[in-house]
Amino acid sequence: MEYAAFDLYKTMAEQEKDQTVRDSFLAIAQAEKSHMRMLIRALDQCV
Length: 47
Prior knowledge:
- This protein is mainly α.
- The protein has one domain.
- Helix content is 89%, strand content 0%.
- The protein has helices spanning 2-15, 19-46.
- Helix 1 (2-15) packs antiparallel against helix 2 (19-46).
- The mean pLDDT is 93.
């Protein structure tokens, strides 16, 4: 799910013409990437 959100926001940023909006989408994409890393670490501890 986090990867889908990351991909969505990254794609939206790539298509956006307004730099401020693009930067916002990229920031959200980075947050989703961070969530993916946290989820992977949590899952690694469960195994």
